[in-house]
Design brief:
Number of helices: 1
Number of strands: 14
Strand content: 25-35%
Helix content: 10-25%
Shape: rod-shaped
Largest sheet: 8 strands, antiparallel
Distance between the termini: 184 Å
Radius of gyration: 61 Å
Order of helices and strands: HEEEEEEEEEEEEEE
């Protein structure tokens, strides 16, 4: 009875034996098992990384063919015009046949032969209408005393002393544009000159030597000094001479030579 082993003791010995055998196996083969597990882990990790890299990669953009169109246009400071639609004036092929455009010459920028040349102002040299002293000068802004009218007024010409009947000459080439009798200025002749100025001769005697439309040159006698200008009658015989530009009086002294 004392030599027999109890059931609990026998089962416990078998369990210990199994653990000892497992421990020996692990100690003997454990290195290879761990190595195998590491290789497996490395393989799985590599597969996962490769799969993720393929999923996150950007797809390649296909190359756009060159159609001969420029994508950049230099800015010229003005709005860019769009190309007009193609017309028959451009060479091409219609229904299998070659179309040759009709080329027309660009319009000429030169003026037509029939156009008039630009007008030029002629240079005119003036002479005095008669020899004599200027007894009253030009004054268009400051009034001067007029003995006949007994007042102060502007004087838009030159009063040149002369004897009654003394010849009065045209001061430059031109055309007689007016002949009339003014109530205050007396018998008057106007001559239009080549530069656009008009000379005016007032207080002339009756019996003029020119009429409207006559052409004159410098020195042509147009009449004689008279006493028909009643607004300056107290000054005695003299010529009241004016010059006008575009209808406005100008100082004759700027154009006539000195005494």
């Amino acid at each position: 009875m004392n030599n027999q082993q109890k059931p609990g003791e026998q089962s416990g010995s078998k369990g210990e034996l199994t653990l000892r055998r497992a421990g020996k196996f692990i100690l003997g083969k454990g290195f290879y098992i761990v190595l195998l597990l590491c290789l497996a882990a490395i393989g799985v990790s590599g597969y996962v990384i490769f799969s993720l890299s393929n999923q996150s990669s950007v797809p390649e953009i296909p190359e756009i063919p060159d159609l001969g169109l420029s994508t950049t246009v230099p800015y010229s400071g003005v709005a860019l015009a769009t190309r007009p639609p193609k017309t028959t004036a451009e060479a091409g092929e219609v229904n299998g046949q070659t179309v040759i455009p009709n080329v027309t010459a660009a319009p000429s920028t030169e003026p037509p032969a029939t156009s008039k040349p630009p007008m030029t102002v002629a240079k005119v040299f003036y002479m005095r209408p008669l020899a004599g002293e200027v007894i009253r000068g030009y004054s268009d802004s400051i009034p001067v005393y007029n003995p006949t009218m007994d007042d102060w007024r502007v004087h838009t010409g030159l009063d040149i002393a002369a004897a009654a009947g003394e010849a009065v000459c045209a001061v430059a080439p031109g055309t007689v544009s007016a002949v009339y009798k003014d109530y205050f200025a007396g018998l008057t002749v106007e001559i239009l000159h080549l530069d656009g100025l008009t000379s005016v001769y007032c207080g002339l005697a009756e019996g003029l030597d020119v009429t409207i439309g006559d052409s004159v040159t410098a020195g042509t006698v147009i009449g004689c000094v008279g006493e028909t200008a009643i607004f300056e009658s107290l000054d005695g015989p003299h010529l009241h001479f004016e010059m006008r530009k575009s209808g406005s009086a100008v100082d004759p002294s700027y154009y006539l030579p000195g005494e």
